[in-house]
Write a sequence for this structure.
């Protein structure tokens, strides 16, 4: 059975329970496959990145095979995406508005209008990237500067809360790159950049806690600055060892290593990828 998300954001959980860990989120218009069910819960597989988890059945809408086949093709082909952390779309059917998060795909988009299952929505054209952006320093800053200070949320990928890999997945979607969901998956994609000195804006940097297990990812603004979600989306310095933090909270981080100048390395650099 197939389904579609018609809410702004839908939490996907590890187990069929409200108190269960949030693994990721599905965004408006995103199709998925129902692979299991338990009472009022459905286990779904995302068409975007293959992530599986449980959602409340009230938060998804079933689709027939025919509806899914037609819509999924439109959705996969769509290049238009919401550009800023939050935008509003208005249904031409009933005049109601719905908030849309950055990276939300807009099928059949043209001139400020898009269509989902026969319903036409209007959205401000300047809130939309109607084709993939070119990966360069100017565009990376254009996309990310409005995401500063979004709070960290495990499994989140929207303007009210986002985790490290949700942040990088969302940003890269605007450049036409379909990244997998988690840091340990994203490091398997793209091409290797051997040295930080060779890195460019938009490259992803991956980190561990000196244990060999990738646990964090950030987005380079240049070879000296990284934007990442840790507590909140922020910009910090980076060197060949890892992220350099001047925040007082770094001293309380059990994984942090104090530097000679009093700053801390909070994440150990283990890889760089370009997409």
């Amino acid at each position: 059975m197939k389904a579609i998300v018609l809410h702004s954001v839908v939490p996907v959980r590890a187990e069929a329970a409200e108190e269960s860990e949030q693994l990721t989120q599905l965004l408006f218009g995103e199709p998925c496959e129902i692979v299991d069910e338990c009472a009022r819960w459905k286990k779904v597989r995302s068409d975007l990145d293959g992530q599986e988890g449980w959602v409340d059945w009230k938060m998804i809408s079933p689709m027939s095979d025919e509806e899914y086949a037609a819509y999924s093709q439109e959705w996969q082909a769509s290049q238009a995406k919401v550009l800023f952390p939050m935008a509003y779309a208005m249904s031409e059917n009933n005049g109601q508005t719905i908030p849309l998060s950055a990276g939300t795909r807009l099928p059949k988009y043209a001139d400020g209008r898009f269509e989902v299952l026969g319903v036409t929505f209007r959205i401000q054209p300047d809130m939309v990237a109607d084709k993939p952006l070119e990966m360069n320093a100017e565009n990376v800053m254009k996309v990310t500067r409005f995401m500063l200070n979004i709070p960290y949320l495990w499994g989140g990928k929207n303007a009210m809360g986002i985790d490290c890999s949700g942040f990088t997945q969302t940003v890269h979607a605007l450049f036409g790159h379909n990244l997998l969901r988690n840091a340990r998956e994203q490091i398997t994609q793209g091409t290797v950049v051997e040295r930080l000195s060779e890195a460019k804006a938009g490259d992803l940097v991956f980190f561990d806690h000196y244990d060999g297990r990738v646990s964090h990812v950030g987005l380079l603004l240049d070879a000296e600055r990284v934007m990442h979600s840790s507590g909140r989306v922020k910009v910090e310095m980076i060197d060949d060892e890892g992220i350099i933090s001047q925040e007082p909270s770094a001293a309380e981080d059990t994984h942090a290593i104090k530097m000679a100048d009093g700053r801390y390395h909070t994440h150990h650099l283990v890889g760089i990828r370009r997409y």
